[in-house]
């Protein structure tokens, strides 16, 4: 009779004889992971009753032992889940302060353990597919264990029928079958109780993450439903938008779809706003700016003297179908940009003929030339308003003072961009770490995201002034006629989660979204913290700081007639919407302008060739630091 039981990776160089194994099976022993031979004998007393099955050829009986449970420290493995957990945990702290959800007592400590079960036999190589780090067979009573506990079954030499019989025996909510033969089993249907994956580390970790986030989905949905029943106000609107962003991020980070093969898709950034609506608003006098707001409404900013009622009627006639999906919201205010520059930040540009006058900003990241003979060419990315002229020297500061490290070779404000590229001096190349960094400051592959922003959840930036911050996209498609009446390229607005997304000195920071094993680079921050104010007379404009806002002057009208309960919250933020906003433009547009300027055969890319063993998804790069919250 073949005996199939839980086994231990040979961490302590010990061996079990066939006699010991048989005795173990007969005495109902071996239930949990064993780290030493002493642990083996201790655990043998705690065995569960085995299950007897017939193998696929019906000629021999197969004994199936109980489940082995292994505990992993959060942050040391499953970094993607830990990231999502802390996004939700941070949101929970703000939900709790509202004191409107009475059953929100679920503990979400900073540090916790993740419990993984393994049914049937497994090898040390199988465990390495879960994590290179060694889990624990037991933990102290005061350790918090995450409520979702996936169970895996490695097929190994089992027949499909026997392996599935093991899984059918278990009552777990999340069961993952790991096939030893690539795609030998059907993939799961929507109502399947199991998740089927191949013997592939990436697929296994994705499946585990998909199981672990289920309680987060439930928690966020409960918060959302409760908040919808409360009267709309500024704080509710903020939290609802944050919850929606995290839910989108959960979908992105746990998607089991393969990574896109194209780094820079072409012609896929389609506008949500219909052309006839855009052209009408661009031609219409008194319209300052407009854009998609919180993915739910079309917000239009108009002058004080403009007739909002007639504008509403005209727009509804132009495209009634569009406005049935995106209710119209009109506000008699201006949303003005305030450039994010501050003296003394790490990246500085010297103003010609002004020895002591420096502009400051953030070095957003590096791109490299894709041509083999120019592979050593590296370009730092930042903002045009920091480097408004070509051939300007870029400086950084260290213990030796200000040091020039490159020259501006391209700068533009075309197509709503505020972009500059600095070619790194050859003598400085070895001092450049061109790899992109994620939210844990770990190296990771980066790809240009040139698609619509509708499905993007939480976004991040790393700036010279405020370091790492989190936000969500407030307006995925925003047009500013005050900046350039003839420009038809849109920008997007990001709102900080809990605080500012950017501040003075953060200009040039790249905005990115996390995926399974890479980041999508979406755009670049170029302005922040706008002030919304009413149009004034020319004398008032000359005598008043345009960034001061008199709250008593604010006026707004909104069309909130819709059958969708969610949409009422998009219309409540009003003046509060002006806080914590960062103006950003799409990075793929800027890079295309850069490539066109430099010549037909010129192209650049972010570092995207890191192996899995060296990228942020590798266990070898993980540390306890990944367990820390982001603020």
Features:
alpha+beta, Thrombin, subunit H, 6-stranded antiparallel β-barrel, 13 helices, 30 strands, 23% helix, globular, disordered C terminus
Instruction: Provide the low-confidence segments as ranges.
Output: 1-64, 258-267, 544-575, 612-631
Instruction: Give Rg in angstroms.
Output: 28 Å
Helix tally?
Answer: 13
Q: What is the percent of helical residues?
A: 10-25%
Q: Please state the overall shape, judged from the principal axes of the Cα atoms.
A: globular
- Quick check: average pLDDT? 75
First CA to last CA: what distance? 57 Å
How many DSSP E strands? 30
Trace the largest sheet across and list its strands: 14-13-17-18-19-16-15-30
Q: Approximately how much beta-strand content do the residues carry?
A: 25-35%
Counting helices, strands and paired strands, the structural category is alpha+beta
Q: Major sheet: size, sense and barrel closure?
A: 8 strands, antiparallel
